[in-house]
Write a structure and sequence with these properties.
The structure holds two protein chains of two kinds. By secondary structure, chain A is an alpha/beta fold. Chain A has eight helices and five strands. A five-stranded parallel β-sheet of chain A has the order 2-1-3-4-5. In chain A, helix 1 packs parallel to helix 7. The longest helix of chain A has 17 residues. By secondary structure, chain B is mainly α. Helix content of chain B is 67%, strand content 4%. Chain B is built from 29 helices and six strands. The termini of chain B are far apart. About 7% of the residues of chain B have low confidence. Classes of the chains: A alpha/beta, B mainly alpha. At the A-B interface, loops of A face loops of B.
């Protein structure tokens, strides 16, 4: 059993169409920890000591959020700024997170094709995630491929949202039960509900 | 005096013993009172007590009840009910009268006697039904609303009945009759002869009657506010109670004088006042009187049963009672079906109204006095009426236990819509509560605001805000303001004892209500915490912190720095607060509370450090975050290149 923590961050929770049901599904899974960051810190008063204690007790830390301007919602950035302190997460003596796994589950409004040299977004999605990937690297954490839903605002029409949520639940349960092939995921660009690298039956 | 005390003692004793027992057995208070009445009837007989005159007195409880019902019913709602009122009510009275009269003729009565009997038995018991519906929380259900429409129509219909019955007089009984003649004396058996309309012509009578109703409406809607404001200045609770009673009794008297039903008059006054900010206060002042008088009334019904006559005619009486309930029930069931009252509500409506009512007693007395019905028959009918009323709580229990559980599944969903989502009560509308109300209203919420200061009321009423006058520390007023179904109560009054009192009461009796309380100072926070509140706002703390932050900014501190320090201070202060609140015990003086003393010492040490401005715990924590790392350790980390100095994660 891996100790798994889901950090959910969505400032527009009330109007969310994909992330909210994802978060609700995640919160209902037994044996994992779930934190709604905007609910816990509505006034951005992040408790550094409490957050550090929380992640020390975990093996996998997963951030679930909608992609805003090629980045995370601002509270996750605030969390990273404050919690991943020098001497704790990096720098001299800063190896407390070494060996853990940091993972991303994000939704993007743009279609898959847009993320490329000819697309509207010009760069591949992973390019925008490289600050997060490098953050994980500096903290000596593994960074498996993100779990992604493209065209998230139109996805509910063809049942893609339901498939994505079901896949999310399978992903989290596999992480919890050590059935998720993190080594394989590290080499992938991104994973979708139909490409989850889960070992055994699943 | 001695007799009054004795009677009060007997009735109170019987009620206090029987009602809790009945309530515990799930029988409802009405059945408890009825049984209590039966139990004390031998005793009352022994001392030759005039039960009937006590009953007439107690009927005033029905008048008060209709006033309270009116208070709950805004004119708009009443207007919406009009088709049901006339349709359901009119058809119920008409059909039941005809069928009962038909049965009576079949049993060999003459048409006039049969018609009188039909009228007497068509009426149901407003007292029992409304009391039971309220007690069981069924008033708002479809069946409850339908029942109310019918009862209201019946109350109105009594007036023409009172006028009609004397016309049915039998010539052969006329010689025996005594009194009589006075047609519309109201139903409460008031002394005949006191009347404003005697000796007037028909159109003068009509004019006086209309004038009386108009004056109730005008006084109710225009003069109530100034009058109650005037009384409120005295800030004496008993004067307010007296004024409320005066109001109800005055209207009842006026209605009696012009020959209208006092119940109808007070109901009308209640409707007029339903939108008033004094509604809750009136409700909670009248309610205890209503409850006691109704209880007395039910006991007299129980005590009035003539057991000698009952044992002599046991089977006839039982057969007549059952027959009556079946006939009335059949009519009600058919009407409910026609008017689309479905599911379990149809049965509630059918079983709830299938009895004869207290108006029956009044009409029966009238019929005998006017030589319409022979005495023997009237005595027999009196038994039937009483017995059917006695049967009603049993029918409600039948509905509750056997019918509702099976049919209620489909109703569940619609019921939820009826409950207003997230209702808020704000106690106190001064400098504190006023802002809360302003904010919440701006966001589309409609808090119920309760305040004791009429000056405050005038101020905000000018802006169209609905505020209710009353003393929020009184449990019954909170009840009237709807604490039972509220989701949040904001205690925003001043006065620390009063605040703590409300918090303690609500936390204990309505644990489902979320509490937000205003605290006067630190010590008060601990008291409120001990009383069960977890959302405690110190009334001046936040503004003081903001002033501190402004001071830092005025000194030239970067605003974000100032903000962070202020936040850290709040955190720090809060931690101390919780630390002490946890061990505070209102029953032990703090200096004898060892755990409290221990923690207080620690807190004091840290606070002193803060005040001295040295080694301050919170200001050290405020430095955390966004600070550059300590440089001397940089070289020991092989991962970092010299180009980035100590901190590759930050660009300086």
């Amino acid at each position: 059993m891996a100790r798994l923590l889901v950090y959910y961050a969505h400032p527009g929770h009330r109007a969310s169409r994909v992330n909210r049901p994802m978060a609700e599904a995640a919160a209902a899974i037994e044996g994992i920890a779930f934190v709604d960051l905007y609910r816990l810190y509505p006034r951005y008063n992040i408790d550094i000591a409490a957050e550090q204690a929380r992640i020390l007790a975990m093996d996998v830390i997963l951030f679930q959020f909608p992609l805003f301007w090629y980045s995370t919602p601002s509270l996750i950035k605030e969390w990273i700024d404050l919690v991943l302190e020098y001497g704790f997460a990096y720098g001299s003596g800063g190896d407390r997170l070494a060996g853990k796994t940091m993972m991303i589950a994000l939704t993007a409004a743009g279609p898959h094709e847009a993320y490329g040299p000819r697309g509207l977004q010009h760069y591949p999605l992973r390019t925008f995630l490289s600050p997060l990937e490098q953050t994980a690297r500096l903290c000596q954490m593994r960074f498996p491929a993100p779990y992604v839903l493209h065209s998230a605002l139109k996805a509910s029409e063809d049942g893609a949202v339901d498939r994505h949520i079901a896949g999310y639940v399978r992903l989290l349960e596999a992480l919890r039960d050590d059935r998720y092939d993190i080594d394989r995921a590290v080499d992938m660009q991104s994973v979708r509900s139909d490409t989850l690298p889960i070992r055994g039956k699943g | 005096m001695g007799e009054l005390l004795f009677l009060s003692f007997v009735f109170l004793c019987a009620g206090v013993v029987a009602v809790p027992v009945a309530a515990r057995l799930g029988l409802g208070s009405v059945l408890g009172y009825l049984i209590a009445g039966i139990a004390i009837s031998p005793l009352l007989g022994l001392f030759d007590v005039d039960v009937i005159s006590i009953q007439h007195f107690a009927e005033f409880g029905v008048v008060m009840m209709l006033f309270l019902v009116g208070l709950e019913l805004e004119p708009r709602l009443l207007w919406q009910m009009r088709s049901r009122l006339l349709g359901l009510g009119g058809l119920q009275v008409g059909l039941t009268t005809l069928i009962v009269a038909g049965c009576a003729m079949a049993l060999g009565q003459s048409w006039s006697v049969a018609l009188a009997v039909g009228l007497v038995l068509a009426l149901s018991s407003t007292a029992i039904v409304l009391q039971t519906l309220n007690e069981k929380g069924l008033m708002k259900s479809d069946g409850g609303q339908g029942s109310f429409s019918v009862l209201l129509f019946q109350d109105i219909a009594v007036i023409p009945m009172l006028a009609l019955i004397p016309l049915l007089a039998l010539p052969e009984l006329a010689g025996l009759a005594h009194g009589g003649g006075h047609g519309a004396g109201g139903h409460s058996g008031e002394p005949h002869g006191m009347s404003l309309v005697d000796g007037l012509t028909a159109w003068q009578q009509a004019l006086v009657t209309i004038g009386a109703i108009a004056s109730v409406i005008v006084v109710g809607s225009l003069l109530t506010r100034p009058i109650f404001n005037f009384i409120a200045v005295a800030r004496l609770r008993e004067i307010f109670v007296a004024a409320a009673l005066l109001w109800v009794i005055g209207i009842a008297l006026l209605m009696t004088l012009v020959g209208l039903s006092p119940a109808l008059g007070t109901f009308l006054a209640g409707v007029v006042l339903a939108n008033s900010e004094y509604r809750h206060e009136l409700e909670s002042n009248i309610d205890p009187f209503k409850g006691l008088l109704l209880g007395l009334f039910f006991m007299t019904v129980g005590a009035g049963i003539d057991f000698d006559l009952l044992t002599q005619n046991l089977w006839t009486t039982v057969a007549l009672t059952v027959g009556l309930v079946v006939v009335k029930g059949a009519v009600l069931f058919a009407l409910a079906t026609i008017f689309g009252i479905g599911g379990s509500d149809r049965w509630l409506f059918t079983l709830g109204l299938a009895q004869a009512g207290e108006f029956g007693f009044v009409l029966l007395t009238l019929t005998v006095n006017n030589a319409v019905i022979p005495q023997a028959l009237a005595d027999q009918l009196l038994l039937v009426v009483a017995l059917s009323m006695l049967l009603t709580p049993a029918l409600f229990i039948l509905y509750e236990r056997a019918i509702a559980p099976r049919l209620n599944v489909a109703n569940e969903e619609r019921h939820e819509d009826d409950v207003p989502n997230g209702s808020i009560i704000i106690a106190g509308h001064g400098r504190f509560g006023g802002i809360i109300n302003h904010m919440l209203r701006g966001l589309g919420h409609e808090p119920v605001v309760v305040d004791y200061s009429s000056a405050q009321l005038d101020l905000v009423s000018a802006f169209g805000v609905r505020v209710y006058f009353g003393d929020a520390t009184r449990p019954d007023l909170l009840e009237a303001a709807g604490i039972e179904s509220a989701s949040v109560l904001v205690v925003a009054i001043d006065g620390r004892e009063q605040i703590t009192g409300i918090v303690r009461h609500v936390h204990r009796n309505h644990p489902q209500v979320k509490l937000i309380a205003r605290a006067v100072d630190r010590q008060h926070v601990y008291e409120l915490y001990a009383a069960g509140c977890r959302d405690i706002i110190r009334e001046t703390f936040d503004s003081a912190v903001r002033a501190g932050r402004s001071t830092l900014e005025a000194l030239g501190e970067h605003p974000f720095e100032a903000e962070r320090k202020a936040r850290q201070f709040v955190e720090h202060d809060r931690r101390h607060m919780v630390l002490l609140a946890d061990v505070y015990d209102p029953d032990i003086p703090v200096h004898k509370n060892a755990a409290y003393v221990e923690r207080a010492k620690q807190v004091r040490k840290e606070t002193e450090a803060d005040l001295r401005g040295k080694e301050a715990s919170f200001s050290i924590r405020a430095e955390r975050g966004w600070a550059p790392p300590v440089e001397q350790n940089a070289e020991s980390d092989p991962r970092e290149s010299g180009d980035f100095a100590a901190d590759p994660a930050r660009s300086g």
